[in-house]
Amino acid sequence: MLKITPYLGILVVIVSIAGLWFPLLGYFLLLVFATLLITSVFRGRWFCGNLCPRGSFNDFWVGKITRGKKIPKILRSYWIRVPLFLFMMGFMGYRLLSTQGLVNQIGMVFVIMCLATSTIALLAGATVSPRTWCTFCPMGTVQNLIGGSKYQLHTDESKCIDCNKCEKSCPMQLDVHTNSDKPDCIKCGRCITACPTKALSFKA
Predict the structure, then answer these.
(1) C-alpha span between 159 and 49 (Å, rounded)
(2) β-pair type (200-203, 152-155)
(3) Measured between alpha carbons, how far is 172 from 51 in angstroms, rounded to an integer?
């Protein structure tokens, strides 16, 4: 992860709370959307593990109070993720149309979306695992579909000793040490750091 990653979580608090009084802060989400869409073309969900403010919030804030349970597999299902994406985009589109183009009201729509999803992420992270929200996050799903096959994690099987330290360090609870596609890998690099034999690396 990047050096700034642990500090990005404060942006979620600023937009979600201060945005209620200063709706223009909601436009920050447009920058987030644009950045994640561009990076997903080349590196899949790299944004999630390195630049996502909510991801940082989950890891370094919610992670302090989580119960650390196993993330239910059903939450990774596209039967959950795609309908959620369609619902959220439809609801946001409806709310934007009702603003009649007023700048502050448009910003408030984004603020409310940020506050609502952050609340869900907080509750899910505290009761299950920090990155629970990230397994079915609509924006994560979009990145998964656009570039899930890019910048894949590779295991040098001649070096792997099956110690499973990589999987224990994975915030997404993925099957790390197999050379199968991992479209929901967030490229945070924790598994690479945890590997005692340096068997893991990212391949373009």
Answers:
(1) 25
(2) antiparallel
(3) 16
What pLDDT, on a 0 to 100 scale, did the predictor assign at position 177? 85
Chain segment 98-131, per-residue pLDDT in tens: 998 899 999 999 999 999 999 999 999 999 999 9
Q: Do residues 168 and 119 make contact, with C-beta atoms less than 8 angstroms apart?
A: no
Helix or strand holding residue 153 (H, E): strand 152-155
Question: What is the crossing angle of helices 53-60 and 10-17, to 10°?
Answer: 110
Dihedral (C-alpha) 62, 68, 70, 74: value to the nearest 10 degrees? -20
Single-letter amino acid, residue 81: R
**Residue 147 CB contacts under 8 Å (≥ 6 apart), including other chains:** 40, 41, 42, 43, 44, 45
Q: pLDDT tens digits for 142-167?
A: 999 999 999 999 999 999 999 999 99
Residues in the chain: 204
Residues 153 and 182: beta-carbon distance below 8 Å: yes
- What pTM does this model have? 0.93
Question: What's at 16, amino acid-wise?
Answer: S
Do the Cβ atoms of 130 and 63 come closer than 8 Å? yes
